[in-house]
Amino acid sequence: MSSRNQNRPPRSPNARKEDHGGIPFDKRRKLETPGTGRRQAFSTVNKQDSTSNSDVGSIEECGKVEFTKDEVLALLNERPKAGKFDHKAKIEQMTDIIKRLKLCVKWFQQVDETHVQEKENLKVSLESAEQKYNYRELETRTKEEELNAIISMLKENAVSLHEKLAKEESCKQARLFDAIENHRKETESRVAAEKAQASLGEELERVKEEKTTAKHKVASLEDMYKRLQEYNTSLQQYNSKLQTDLETVRAEHTRAEKDKSSILENLTTLRGHSRSLQDQLASSRVLQDDAKKQKDSLVTEVTNLRSELQLVRADRDRQVVQSEKLAEEIAKYKENVGKSSQELHILIARSGSLEETCSLQKERINMLEQQLAIANEKQKMADASVSLTRTEFEEQKHLLCELNARLADMEHQLCEGELLRKKLHNTILELKGNIRVFCRVRPLLPDDGGRHEATVIAYPTSTEACGRGVDLVQSGNKHPFTFDKVFNHEASQEEVFFEISQLVQSALDGYKVCIFAYGQTGSGKTYTMMGRPEAPEQKGLIPRSLEQIFQASQTLGAQGWKYKMQVSMLEIYNETIRDLLSSNRTTTMELVRADSGTSGKQYAITHDVNGNTHVSDLTVFDVGSIGKISSLLQQAAQSRSVGKTQMNEQSSRSHFVFTLRISGVNESTEQQVQGVLNLIDLAGSERLSKSGATGERLKETQAINKSLSALSDVIFALAKKEDHVPFRNSKLTYLLQPCLGGDSKTLMFVNISPDPSSTGESLCSLRFAARVNACEIGVPRRQTSTKLLDSRLSYG
Ligand code: ADP
Ligand code: MG
């Protein structure tokens, strides 16, 4: 038995706060984790309980209460020991057990809250740690990226600089090579030029020497020439002297001739003398001839000398020309030498500039190397900070792991607590009875006739019956009734829903739940079930249940639960099913035909071995949001209202069945649940005599009465644990068969109209409800339902 609740999902914190018995547990007590075995207080509870009155409210004065797991289990297994017919003792024992269970539930709720709180705290710290961790990680990453970017930039820079450097070096080398080559060439040419210059100098020397020799020669020649000229002059002088001599000779000759003539005259005169004179003449003639001869030889010599002079002059001219030529050549060489030295200077200047650029490059390289060193330093620093961040990150990770472990631990504890809670919750519900009856009296409406008549409904104020009793006065007779809960005309929709919210939670926990609204037409069944959707505070149980289920499923989603919801809505009219969500709505004609069993759609009801009901051709919608359900409810309401106008108040003449199937899977714990929530707005329960129906209307009323009595037959058969439960006697009971037996939970609202004219019907309704309320089908069935439950659990 202890295993049967283990695959139910945990409840939402919302639902947890609600107390099923209607007693608010405001004062929370500090509690410790169940199962620690450190608690002893159960005996205290027993003691307190034995001394306290049976009033449930006294629980609040009990002080600090704590339970151990064993105590809880013992409490769960505790059963009334009184004799079968000792109802009072049984009731007392039951009340006692209920009280302790409530205490236990309360204790558990507190433990649960502490867990939830702690879980929240852990979650918050986990989130913050995660955030911190994420932030650190992000920071580290960005830092790393930045540094990587800087490093790569620097590397690129360094590479480009290296390249540049290499290029520059190669360029420089090439230029240096060129310069060296040029220099070498120039040196060579210079050497050659110097050699040439030297040879030219030598030649110059030689030429100079030659020139000097030539000059010497010229000088000697000139000397000679001078001397020759002198000689010539002397010769000319001599010649002129000779000529003068000749003149004188000639004058002497003339004188001699004269002398001769004088002599010849003297000859004649002096013939004797003549002869001597002739001798003298002859000798003068010889002298003259000699002089002539001397003169001729001198003339020849002068001519010779002149020709020689001519030769010497020519030679001198030649020498001068040659020396001029040589001087020209020297000038040329000198020019060449100048050019070479200029080039040499240029080359030297260029090599100097190259050296300068080289040194500049070296400086730049040094600078870059320094930069690289700085960058390396920076990188090292960054690496250090990265490692620091890494260690921090590791620490955070470690912390995160620890927090996760703690969270998992807490979650585990929470799960265990949740299981225990479910067990307790279920036990409480079972102790209360799996069929419960709530009575709701609607307010007097303006249309009601009995406005000014005496009130027919009264609510007893005794402690016993407070909130649970209702008295109906009919012709002066007071008929007292007690139910699990009575809502007077002032009860709001919210208050009503608050009381059933635990049942709705049960559907989410994997139970099959049926909530019926029973009563005569106009007593407020539809108002209770559907309410007025247009006014939020007047929403009925159906929309409120759906809201709760969606909210709770979302809360449980955090614990790994995933839910799938399916909705179907149908009407049973004259034992015929009508699909309210069908896209091609059944027309009046079809309904009439359906009524006579000739409809195309069969809507055959089948149940599989897992207790799942299937209605053929019925529209089933998967719903994921409350919005979708709202639209479906609208569609259904419209569909019903269509029927209402066309089919003569059909809505009161048919049973409306809203079914929500909930399949939940928890992937982390591999738990599965499958719950069903049926909300049924029954057809008006007024008796035939009152409706005064005939014909079609009579048939309707008969069908309704038949199905309602089939419902009560089923309930009573279940209560009596009869072997045969007549589920098949009506469409409604057959449809709800899996949800009416076993460990399913059933709640019946009996709606009462305060209109005095309805007193008779109200009395009937209250009597019927009281009979149902007397059924204790929950507790005994617990023993026998294990198999059924197990089959349900095994299939989820
Ligand atoms: P039924 O479905 O049982 O035939 P209805 O739900 O249609 O009855 O109620 C009949 C009328 O009474 C409706 O106008 C409804 O709004 C009103 N009514 C019923 N219950 C309440 C209530 N608790 N408070 C206010 N009005 C109510
Ligand atoms: Mg109605």
From TrEMBL:
One of its GO terms (cellular component) is microtubule. The keyword ATP-binding applies. Its main location: cytoplasm. Residues 1-57 are annotated as: Disordered. Residues 15-32 have a biased composition (Basic and acidic residues). The keyword Cytoplasm applies. Residues 434-775 form the Kinesin motor domain. Signal peptide: none annotated. Pfam families: Kinesin (PF00225). Residues 190-259, 288-378 form a coiled coil. Keywords: ATP-binding, Coiled coil, Cytoplasm, Cytoskeleton, Microtubule, Motor protein, Nucleotide-binding. One of its GO terms (molecular function) is microtubule motor activity. Residues 41-56 have a biased composition (Polar residues). ATP binds at residues 519-526. GO terms for biological process: microtubule-based movement. It is found in: Cytoplasm, Cytoskeleton. Belongs to the TRAFAC class myosin-kinesin ATPase superfamily. Kinesin family. KIN-14 subfamily. PANTHER family: KINESIN-LIKE PROTEIN KLP-3, PROTEIN CLARET SEGREGATIONAL. This is Kinesin-like protein. It comes from Thlaspi arvense.
